[in-house]
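Appendix B, example 12.
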Amino acid sequence: EAGLPSSSFLIASFNNPMKIDSDVLAAWRQVVANTSDSAMWFLSWKKEHGFSSSMKRYFQFRAGAVYSTDVFSFLEHLQFKTMADTFADTFAYNGHMTVAEAVFIGTPVVTLPG
């Protein structure tokens, strides 16, 4: 569904791109690079031109290491979050509602206090 892999361990981040800095990306890339069956999943933010293509370039070390989907309605948003195996929070600027929604629907969240 939504072009997402069913066989990968899917790590989602639906945070606003401005919260994703180089330290966060480096940590996520290291996790994906060291686990052969994992992939990152981002939203394609239309107002953030080039975000999806930048993520695809950054994670291009392995085919299928990154996926992006369009932003969807609120109900679809909650349904799609259930497709993720875990949700990766940003650790310089933690998510608020994004993390709360993931917890609400039962998707585990990896985060740091901040």
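The chain is about 30% helix and 20% strand. Residues 22-33 form the longest helix (12 residues).
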